[in-house]
Amino acid sequence: MKGNVEHVQKPNLLSVKDAKQMTVAEVTDLFCRHLNPGQYHFLKLLGYHEVIIERAEGMYYTDKGGRKILDFFGGFGSLAFGHNHPRILAVRRLFQDEKRHEIAIAFMSQYAATLARNLAAIAPEDLDMVFLGSAGSEAVEAALKLAEGVQGPGRCKVVYAENSFHGKTRGALSVTDSAFYQSTVRLLDNRIRVPFGDAGALEAAFRQDRSIGVLILETVQGGAGIVTAPPAYWHSVRRLCSEHNVVWIADEVQCGVGRTGRFFAFEHSGVVPDITVLAKSLGGGKCAMGAMISRRPLYMKVYGTPKTALIHGPATFGGIGEACCTAIEALNILYDEGLIENSATQGVYLLERLRVLQDKYPKMLHDVRGQGLMVGLEFSDFSETMPFGLKQVLSVLDDKLKGSLCGFVGSLLLRDYNILVAFTEYNRNVIRLEPPLIVTREQIDRFLNSLDDLLSRGITRIVTDYAKMYMTKIQRAGSTGSSAPSAS
């Protein structure tokens, strides 16, 4: 008997064409209604709320007005290959034109197998068992789960570092050192925090608590403001983990894929972790791709039999076809175009020139640090830029004003010089520079000359220029009757 099928009425849906043609006001309205009205506050403070990007290519964004913006932000390290690299576009287009398969759950995927093999070929020693996912947090979760499986319930406590950032899913968040991000979420309780870069504190923790079985560390701390540790520390980490039978996870989500001038940042110290995780630039700037790479004996101990193989088997979108092809091509481009070498060479030049600027503006620039094209530019607290008398008065406000000068500089770099930079989660005084690895000497010079010109205005004019810009935007918003939340 044929049943009655009710007609499904199509809702009032917008199309891709509608999205492309939206004005700033229309995007603002939808963003604040349906995405993140609180975030709009910060976009407005920085002057980023009036920018809608029309296209992106190489080192540049182009907004709806045709303005080209030089990208020294790099999507927090996600854009090693720049925007829309032609080889990556071509391989994705071919994949689509040939209607190849995406979801490979029922069958083996030649694309996932090839990507896993390539990652194993790049990784040192017996880091050759790969789990593919869609994001850094997912890769971290897989690593933590594997490490706990290796150690068993008696040694499942995880050591992590102060000022760490490993992701926002529950397990990754539990080893992310941020009360702000953790908020009121109930976290894992099998964890202990130690100072980053302090081998003595790590050794003491291992000796005092025999239930510690896992250590997770960013090789370069991005959210902390681009914080590195010397090779001697990493040698101690490797030695201590081997002596105490602790599984060491190296989080290379941001600092991997050539960002620091080596494929893995841990290679600078000549050490090898037990597990490492990648994401961000592994997706070639066109897709979400994450990977965990483990030493084979560890992986086989936990997932190496038919009974255990699917305990952490592939997710629906883990190893999806087009994403794998994108990552395969991206890894080939990295070596074919010498991008790791370019990162090392241009990174040395960028750091050297920034240190010259630090000497030129010692009151404003507190520190310059980094490795390759992962650079932190730390500005002084506001009071430190003032004459002695005023310095004493303003010092009590340093915590409330922290990040202000950094924000003013970033905002004015975009407005006056068409250059985009990034900021950091924990140390608000730091501008984070992670340009694509395709960056040229000329583009670095443009950034440096622009920063020099901006800092030459002096602190008073920088503050007044920002204030004038901000008040103009407020007045303009008021005169147009914008429905967006205010920045107050």
Provide the CATH superfamily of the largest domain.
Type I PLP-dependent aspartate aminotransferase-like (Major domain)
Q: Which radius of gyration do the C-alpha atoms yield?
A: 24 Å
Helical proportion, percent range: 40-55%
Proportion of residues in extended strands: 5-15%
CATH-derived architecture of the largest domain:
3-Layer(aba) Sandwich
The first-to-last residue Cα distance is 64 Å
Structural class, from secondary structure content? alpha/beta
The CATH first-level class of the largest domain comes to: Alpha Beta
Tell me the strand order in the biggest sheet. 4-10-9-8-7-5-6
Structural shape:
globular
The overall pLDDT, averaged over residues, is 91
Give the SSE map:
Blueprint: H1 16-20, H2 24-35, H3 37-46, E1 53-57, E2 60-63, E3 68-71, H4 74-77, H5 86-97, H6 110-122, E4 127-133, H7 136-151, E5 157-161, H8 170-174, H9 179-182, E6 191-194, H10 199-208, E7 212-218, H11 231-243, E8 247-251, E9 275-278, E10 290-295, H12 296-303, H13 321-336, H14 339-360, E11 365-371, E12 374-379, H15 388-394, H16 398-401, H17 404-417, E13 419-420, E14 422-423, E15 430-433, H18 441-455, H19 458-480
Parallel strand pairs: 3-13, 5-6, 5-7, 7-8, 8-9
Antiparallel strand pairs: 1-2, 2-3, 4-10, 9-10, 11-12, 12-15, 14-15
Helix pairs in contact: 5-13, 6-13, 7-12, 10-11, 14-18, 17-18, 17-19
Characterise the protein shown here.
With 488 residues, the chain is of the alpha/beta class. The chain folds into two domains: 35-84 and 339-480, Alpha-Beta Complex (Aspartate Aminotransferase, domain 1), CATH 3.90.1150; 87-336, 3-Layer(aba) Sandwich (Aspartate Aminotransferase, domain 2). 44% of the residues lie in helices and 15% in strands. The chain has helices at residues 16-20, 24-35, 37-46, 74-77, 86-97, 110-122, 136-151, 170-174, 179-182, 199-208, 231-243, 296-303, 321-336, 339-360, 388-394, 398-401, 404-417, 441-455, 458-480, and strands at 53-57, 60-63, 68-71, 127-133, 157-161, 191-194, 212-218, 247-251, 275-278, 290-295, 365-371, 374-379, 419-420, 422-423, 430-433. It has a seven-stranded mixed β-sheet with strand order 4-10-9-8-7-5-6, sandwiched between helices. Strands 1-2-3-13 form a four-stranded mixed β-sheet. The longest helix has 23 residues, at 458-480. It is globular. 42% of the residues are buried. The model is unreliable at 483-488 (pLDDT under 50).
